[in-house]
Amino acid sequence: MCDHTMDPSGDTIFTLNDPNDLFAVLHDDLIPATEETASSFPAIEAVEQASAEEGKEEGKKDNAAPNSITFRVSSHHLILASPIFKAALTGGWKEGDTSTGELQYSTNGWDTEAMTIVLNALHGHYLRVPMTVTLEMLAKIATIVDYYAVHEAMQLLRMFWIDHLSKALLITTCSKRDSALWICVSCVFGDAGIFMHVTQVAIQYGQGDISSLGLPIPPAVVDRVNKQRRDLVDTISAGLHDLKQGFIDGREGCNIPCRTMQLGALIQGMNDVKLLDHLPGNHFEDFSLSKLVRGVGAIKCPIWCDHDSGRHEVHQCAEAATSPRDRPGYNIARKTEISSLLKHTSALTSRVKGMMGGLQLADFVSSSSESK
User: Structure pTM?
Assistant: First the structure.
């Protein structure tokens, strides 16, 4: 007798061996929530907590749990929905052997609840299928959908599931694992909007590289997210170090006191965001782009008075003129209302902000799988 019956007259026994294997394991899972992420994405703590708790509970093994789960299913439904099932049940494989009077199909490791949901859906038992699921469960379903290539059969249900979860798509913890789960879901079900959003979150707020965690995520996606975040960290670091050297070399600022004051402020600011000793290309695990941009934007230029004229006047930086005549011997200068320090840091942060967008799903998967 089977544990689950999808079709009472079904001709196939579907056996799930060693079910509920560990799923998407990440040892250094959660990066704690910060003020910056909470302010940018309003918290929905109940949903977050439920997802985290489910992940812990579902990862535990019950010693009394059976080593296999059986389902009575219809081979016709499976073959119609999945090319994988079609090849296994009609392609001369051992699963297609009917000598015992029934087809036998076995697999292993999948989550029992996720597999039950998928098989019920493939047999049209929609009243048995939950209209809402957690992110954890949706990612488990997505891995099965991707493996058996049953995207079309699950298309309608995924709209309900994702629509519900997208209302809580506010990744306030910047969890590397949750980011990977969302990227997996958006890739498998072809949701370009969610894909762009979650990759932007990973790039903008992530501290360190993400990984696929063994999920069906194109390697190019993981590589692009990590490279884009690293490149932007490098852009900030290189820009600040170049500006620092400009003050030292005399390319920035109008005189020694001017350069000295701005250099000191810049060094203090770089130290505050932990970039003073950072060299481009190294040490990426502690940097959040959002935090870096805010820190660089918070650098202030000091105010001081000039005494050369005999009067105490607030200094206004005289920046070297940019005309072709600006070369040794001309000593032309013009007054500016903004210091070299603020001008460069403002331009740097604006440039980086414009490059922190998410990725386009169409660049990584076929357009046919994207949601319309």
Answer: 0.78
